[in-house]
Amino acid sequence: MLNFDINRKKLETLIEINTLINSNYDDIKVLLTQIIESATRLTEGAASSLILENPENKKLYFEIALGEKGADVKRFSLKSGEGIAGWVYEKNHSLIVNDTDMDNRFKSDISEKIQFPTSSILAVPMRVKDRCVGVIEILNKKDGKNFNDEDLQWLEIFATQAAIAIQNARSFQKIKDEVSLLHDQIQTEHGYHTFIGKSKGLMEKLEIAKKAAGTDSSVLLLGESGVGKELFAEQIHLNSPRRDNAFIRVNCPALSESLLESELFGHVKGAYTDAIANRRGRFELADSGTIFLDEISDLPLSVQAKLLRVIQEKTFEPVGSSSSIKVDVRIIAATNKDIENEVKRGRFRSDLYYRLNVLPIYIPPLRERTSDIPLLIDFFLTKFRRETKKQIKGFTDEAIEMLLSYSWPGNVRELENAIERAVVICQTEYITPQALILHNQAVPEEERYRGKTLKDAINLFKAHFVKKALGKNNWNQTKTAGELGIQRTYLSRLLKELSINKE
Predict the structure, then answer these.
(1) Helix, strand, coil percent values for the chain (each to nearest 5)
(2) Which residue among 107, 136, 194, 216 has its CA within the 20 to 30 Å range from the CA of 302?
(3) Distance of CA 35 to CAs 29, 66, 79, 157, 208, Å?
(4) In this model, does residue 473 exceed pLDDT 90?
(5) pTM of the entire structure?
(6) Helix 200-213 and helix 229-238, axial crossing angle in degrees, nearest 10
């Protein structure tokens, strides 16, 4: 009767895991952890690991490691054939070793370095289409017992479940990447960027931008360098009645003062020495569409006067011409400077400022919308992983913590550069803090919560606090719930509500 109860429990666990495998492709790490936790419990092991191959360097890495030394184990890697797990991987064959001292395949140095004596090991291969892609190993059966054939058979079933989960997740990720690639290609072909973000502050500004899109009034985008002012300009254009017409971008500081007027308004043949033919300017090209003037505060005063006339009268003369050209252009301007101060100091025309400042939109810096960081790093990782063809799975907990606590003076542009640099440098499956190469610049506590509602601040604190506790307990939800003094079901609900995941 006892054996029947035990087997029934194992069967129920398998059914539960099989259900999860068919419904949980997004959070593969949690799913695999549940599989290994169940395998460890039902084979009565003291510790366990799930070891996967990195296709790039063919090394084996400890993807999941459970037990009191789990976090320490994850620092190591194995070569094919090295240690019990390496042998199982190389031979694609299961193995029971109930006395490691008598088996020369046992790699004792890892056990010694982490100070975890290992006396018995049960290891089985994970196979995808008969090819071994990793190994599950259970260490030290409890109460000094030996692993037996029944343990081996059950662990092989769990290994099959884990392999199915990995295969499904990889297929899902491949489809997800292809859809993302198609979306990006469509956007890129039309010269637009993908808009990423869900934070309350960002969504409020986007809603204002979409409302402004329905008018022809000038919009002035304000915010620090790198916050995404150009993306907001694109969203205004794409949500406007002008969406099917031209969207012309002008980076004002990139053009010399001598060329700027010609670039904006065009010139006629013979207007100056190099004017060998008539040339249409950006405003003429933007007729019936939208023109985006980035860093407009850098425009020289002489050009500001001509721009004011375009706004007021919708006409201008090309350089060297006395004939006026009439245009219908919606103007979106942007600056990272204190433009009111520029007006006070006489460096920017007040009448032009008031004309541009009809619908001002301030875009918050990245440090005030940290909930956007996980979305952005996932987007940039996918982008640069695709470009470099590297098999990088994500970030270590320490790297995520660094990304969330850094102040990002360069905002989204700096974050993108940091992720690109990390992908190029990284030689392991997960990006570490060392690969990020960030200045050690944490956000002060008062900055972390500035500009947030009480509810958002509390949720930010909860997410940070819960994730710390999960990391401390190797993402074991039962242990974490016990430490936090809450029910495991409530912890699971918090993970969903606060969008917490190990990746």
Answers:
(1) 50, 15, 35
(2) 216
(3) 10, 11, 24, 11, 46
(4) no
(5) 0.57
(6) 40
| Element spanning 150, H or E | helix 149-189
The domains of the chain are located at 2-177, 200-364, 367-497
**Topology given in CATH for the domain delimited by 2-177:** Beta-Lactamase (3.30.450)
pLDDT, tens digit, 9 for 90 and up, residues 55-100: 767 788 888 888 888 777 877 888 888 889 899 999 999 999 999 9
Fold of 200-364: Rossmann fold (3.40.50)
Structure confidence at residue 500 as a pLDDT band (50, 70, 90): confident
Packing angle, helices 411-425 and 373-388, rounded to 10 = 40
Question: How many Cβ atoms from other residues are within 10 Å of residue 341's Cβ?
Answer: 11
pLDDT at 135 over 60: yes
Select the more confidently predicted residue: 309 or 35: 309
d(CA 438, CA 195): 24
CB 430 within 8 A of CB 394: yes
Question: Which region among 238-247, 325-334, 494-503 has the lowest average model confidence (pLDDT)?
Answer: 494-503
pLDDT tier for residue 238 given thresholds of 50, 70 and 90? very high
pLDDT surpasses 50 at 4: no
pLDDT of residue 39: 83
Show the CA angle centred on residue 281, arms to residues 275 and 286, nearest 5°. Answer: 165
Please report, for residues 141, 339, 479, the alpha-carbon distance to residue 474 in angstroms, rounded to integers and kept in the order given.
20, 50, 9
Quick one: which of 44, 48, 36, 39 has its CA closest to 139? Answer: 48
Give me the half-sphere count of Cα atoms (radius 13 Å) on the Cβ side of residue 253: 8
Residues constituting the chain: 503
Closest by CA to 283, choosing from 235, 248, 245, 323, is: 248
Q: Give the ranges where 190-238 is alpha helix by DSSP (H).
A: 200-213, 229-238
As a CATH number, domain 367-497 is: 1.10.8.60
One-character DSSP codes across 231-292:
HHHHHHHHTSTTTTS-EEEEEGGGS-HHHHHHHHH-B-TTSSTT--S-B--HHHHTTTSEEE
- Measured distance CA(313)–CA(321) in Å, rounded: 17
Percentage above 90 pLDDT, the chain:
31
Instruction: Return d(Cα 477, Cα 138) in angstroms, integer.
Output: 20
pLDDT of residue 2: 43
What is the amino acid identity at position 55?
P
Cα separation of 136 and 106, whole Å?
Answer: 15
User: Taking Cα atoms as reference points, which of 215, 266, 255, 207 lies closest to residue 232?
Assistant: 207
Q: Angle CA(381)–CA(160)–CA(65) in degrees, nearest 5?
A: 55
